[in-house]
Amino acid sequence: MAATILQQDPHSLRESRENILEIAIGREVRAFRRKQEITVADLSAATGLSIGMLSKIENGNTSPSLTTLQTLANALSVPLTAFFRGFEESRMAVHTKAGEGVEQEREGTRSNHQYNLLGHLGANASGVIVEPYLITLSDEADVFPTFQHAGIEMIYMLEGEVDYRHGNNVYPMKPGDTLFFDADAPHGPDVLVKLPARYLSVISYPQKS
After folding, report:
1. What's the mean pLDDT in 89-103?
2. Thinking of the domain 17-88, which architecture would CATH place it in?
3. Closest CA to 197 of 169, 166, 165, 163
4. Burial 70-81 (b: 16+ CB within 10 A, else e)
5. Residue 191 near residue 162 (C-beta atoms within 8 A)
6. At a CB cut-off of 8 Å and minimum separation 6, what does 170 contact?
7. Which one of 79, 90, 100, 199 is most buried, counting C-beta atoms within 10 A?
8. pTM of the entire predicted model
């Protein structure tokens, strides 16, 4: 069977917090431009910025000056602070200890079957990609830098103990624990407390158009 190429690398690294800011600004600039149905060429003509520079800004490949951002804000008729909205918004995480899931009654539930709601960050429409992983950490060398990617993620601890970082918080994960979080925040195993450690990781994100 041929290997399947994933549409995104869940372990892709973001090198610095500055790089995250550039990406967040670029996303907002593109979103405001598209919402107003303005082409890159039109925005270039309105601001005096080259198409190449605008492309770099929207893709998070350059750090625009405040003067440039103010020029863009004026052309798009939005406040300057609107470009920082995606960077400043809070990143959610739901940590559920073993046995603390909320039991739900669902249509079609059979006798002796329980459905536990382990976390919820909002429903997604059609076109959502889901990628399940079984992660095994057997050596201290398996600790790797935090990573980021689009979408939301749930990890369910099967074996061992891991202190798992999400943003500025660290959650002690033991067998049966669940962590459900916004995957755009830096996250990953911070301390391997008890090895070997195994956990399920389920990532979901919108399919690219």
Report:
1. 63
2. Orthogonal Bundle (1.10)
3. 163
4. ebbbebbebeee
5. yes
6. 163, 164, 190, 191
7. 199
8. 0.48
User: Tokens in use for 65?
Assistant: 């000056």
Look at residue 122 and tell me whether its pLDDT is greater than 90. no
User: 201, 155 in Cβ contact below 8 A?
Assistant: yes
- Return the H-helix or E-strand segment holding 202: strand 187-206
Number of neighbours of residue 118 by Cβ within 10 angstroms: 17
Retrieve residue 208's tokens.
């690219």
106: left (phi over 0), alpha (psi -120 to 50) or beta: beta
Class of domain 93-206: mainly beta
- In this prediction, residues 49-61 reach a mean pLDDT of 91
Cα–Cα distance measured from residue 82 to residue 71, given in angstroms and rounded to the nearest whole number: 13
Say which DSSP state 110 is in. P
Residue range 6-46, pLDDT digits in tens: 444 544 444 444 457 888 888 889 989 998 999 999 999 99
CA distances from 156 to 24, 129, 203 (A): 29, 19, 12
Distance from C-alpha of 62 to C-alpha of 40, rounded to nearest angstrom? 16
